Amino acid sequence: MLTSLSIREIVLIERLDLSFGPGLTVLTGETGAGKSILLDSLGLALGARADAGLVRAGAEQASVAASFTPPGAHPVRALLEELGLPDEDDIVLRRAVSRDGRSRAWVNDAPVGAATLKRVGTLLVEVQGQHDQMGLADPAMHLKLLDAFGTTPDLRAEIAARHRAWRAAVERLDAARAAIIDAKREEDFLRHATDELTKLAPRDGEEEELAALRHRLQQGEKRAEAIAAALAELTPRDRRSAGPAAALRAATRALQRLLPPGADPATPENAAANAAMAALERAEEALGEGETLLSRLQADTDADPRHLEQAEERLFALRGAARKHGVTVVELPGLLATFRARLAALDHGDAEIDGFARAAALARTRYAEAADTLSAARQEAATKLEKAVGAELPPLRLERAKFFAQVTRLDEASWGPAGADSVRFLIATNPGQPPGPLGRVASGGELSRLMLALKVVLVSGSAVPTLVFDEVDSGIGGATAAAVGDRVARVASGVQVLVVTHSPQVAARGTAHLRVSKSTRGSRTETEVNVLASAERREEIARMLAGETVTQAARAAADSLLGAA
Hints:
With 565 residues, this protein is of the alpha/beta class. The protein is 55% helix and 17% strand. The protein has 17 helices and 15 strands. The protein has a 6-stranded antiparallel β-sheet with strand order 2-1-4-5-6-7, with helices on one face.
């Protein structure tokens, strides 16, 4: 509900802070005192059109802030989340208008546009006036109001669920048909690409394996080259030249000539020759062992260049296919699976589409059955609503009027999650007159009272926590005004209501009473708002009854009205 309204520098108001409570708050005052300024200020905070004429004379800027405390599950909180706006216990709508007519707006101190401010404000306050009808006069609201009045949440949830299931089935069918069309358009490419990739037969992880194998084979090739180079150094480059082993043996034979048979090996010369020959023999043995080991290494080294060539060819083929199709090598197996699936859909698509079509038809039938059930419930609810509203009209001096709740079946293209119906509230204000839209047929006063009758019946279905009635009692008095006051009070038992009234019968029903007056201080005229205590309230209602001169009879009549309320 609306908890406070702060107004700065608007028309005749320099500074005003008002607090509001639940129930019915009445605003009274003489014509021209400034009651409309309060409503204009509230409208500005709710996103109404900004006008530089609202800025008080001598001020550079006018501003207004309205604070609300909606319940935790109120739709406005979902809207704030959707819009990315801060959601707090109190929701504050603020608007400023400069002298040049430019305006700025905030929701919980977050800057917003006027359209966003209006979206939020519409969920918090509904204004019903002779020239500003919202909510009930909006045909888009009629279906929701009728459903809240006379259909069950289970029915509405069921139709929404079946609509989702139907749409999902239709989307699957449409997607399958689109896939078939695409596949047929690309059939030649698909078959060629599938054959090509099938022959290539890419495997998961194959690129990594081949890269590792190529590295290993490249290293093996380098190893083989080193071993071959080492063996080449031990092999004579010229057949006429002796190799290292032959040279060692020749050196040994040459030294043997220094030791003729029978020579004394102990002499220093012979001992040195023997040591040299022994060293040459060991060198020959070591050389032979080295050749043997190198030969074994050469035999054990996999340096077949064909293996490396095969690995590189395979790797290059995989990477070439990946480039051709605009994917990575890792994605090739998945791409092949996709191509095969698309071909399978092409080959077996008719049967699949038949299955999806049957599922969509079944989902439509189930939706239509639920829509028929909901339509019947709406027709029954419309009859009850017409009767309930009709009972409220005679006491409001609308005894010649007739209210209609028209439920019409929509074309299938317009069926939706709320069902297959449209709902319109119509009114005929005189016998024989064809019914028409609320705002076009009734006069201002008639429309205000009609809206009140509707609110009395439909108040439980409204999510808007605050209602404003602007002069709903215009042009009436006596018993009719008393009937208006009774119905406004009944509406206020369910939601917060603010009513601007000239009727003492309506004013007496308020749980809070604000008097709007105008005073002159020097050369300045200002609007003031006072919260009336019981004695002041009695005097104000007596003034409304008697006019300029308040009599004891008027005070007694005021006591009677307050006592009856």
